[in-house]
Amino acid sequence: MNTCLILVDFANCDWEHISVSNLIRDIYLQCKSKSIDFDLAVMRLYGGWYVDDLVSDQRQEAVKKIGSWPTIIRISESKIIRIQFLFADEILGYKGNENANVRRTFVERKAKLKGIKIKGDVSNLCNSANCRIKETSKWLSTQKPCLNNICGKKFGEVFVRYEQKQVDTHLLCDFILSLLNQRDCMVFIMSKDLDFMPGIQTACLMGCTKRIGLILTNKVSEYQMSYFERNDIIQVSCIKEDQ
User: Fold this and answer.
1) 161 DSSP β-pair partners
2) Full residue range of the structural domain in which residue 197 is found
3) Residue 242 lies in a domain
4) Over the stretch 143-159, which tens digit does the pLDDT of each residue have?
5) Do 141 and 186 sit in the same domain of this protein?
6) For a FRET experiment, which of 103, 118, 143, 176 has its CA 20 to 30 Å from that of 240?
């Protein structure tokens, strides 16, 4: 086994306190304790994808981060690990057109103002003579996109909200396919939410527990921890000390 694939839910990780060098080193040492060796670590980043030509803030942030990350680290005098970074949307293509990037990972939902209210007394919120909070408050109370009484548009007809709903699905599909197609590869999932559990359980039922790893960035329940330990799943912690 000479490759370790790390599937990263980028937008769900706190990169301010995570060191890629330390992370790869910890992964290697955990794998080595199980007699698993590798020379190449491939970090595949999910999140911050496109809506046609619209680039999300997470994607721009990821590009900046990657530029400062190391591409090679030394574990010991005789051990060096190369690191490769990939954006998942650049390698996921459509059948018959492998060069086509995935462009529709966002779900477009009608935006709503319901439940949003001004906090406290409007007159005490701002001292500026040009403050427009009162107008904003009036706008919120109308539940309409325009203050013009003639306008008949509803709020959801004018404003939309983009929700990135397909990232977990792409990540878990890639996770299962990697376990099936790359028999000599160790596969890790890195995310702070628990949406990956169905994929982990499926992989365990497939008999792939010896090639599964988790990078925990958030605390999990006792049940989940016991499940990981019972199935001998390698765990690497990136949890903040104050969590």
Assistant:
1) 109
2) 3-105+165-237
3) no
4) 777 777 677 787 777 77
5) no
6) 176
| Contact of 167 with 9, CB cutoff 8 Å | yes
Predicted confidence at residue 104, as pLDDT, reads 61
Tokens describing residue 227: 């499940």
The pLDDT of residue 210 is above 80: yes
Contact present, 187 and 211 (Cβ < 8 Å): yes
Q: Who contacts 95 (Cβ-Cβ below 8 Å, separation ≥6)?
A: none
pLDDT digits (tens, 9 = 90+) for 115-151: 677 777 777 778 777 788 777 777 777 777 777 767 7
Which of 148 and 202 is assigned the larger pLDDT?
202
The separation between the first and the last C-alpha atoms of the chain, rounded to the nearest angstrom, is 34
Neighbours of 116 (CB within 10 A): 8
User: 102: pLDDT confidence band, cut at 50, 70 and 90?
Assistant: low
Do 180 and 230 sit in the same domain of this protein? Answer: yes
**Do residues 156 and 221 both lie within one domain?**
no
User: Is residue 101 assigned to a domain?
Assistant: yes
162, 194, 229 - which closes a domain: 162
- Per-residue tokens: 177: 């396919």
138 and 196 in a single domain? The answer is: no
E strand or H helix at 227, and its extent? helix 222-230
Q: Where are the alpha helices (DSSP H) in 69-166?
A: 88-91, 133-142, 155-158
Q: How far apart are CA 54 and CA 77, in angstroms?
A: 46
In what helix (H) or strand (E) does residue 205 lie, and over which residues does it extend? helix 197-205
Backbone angles phi, psi at 33, to 5 degrees: -65, -20
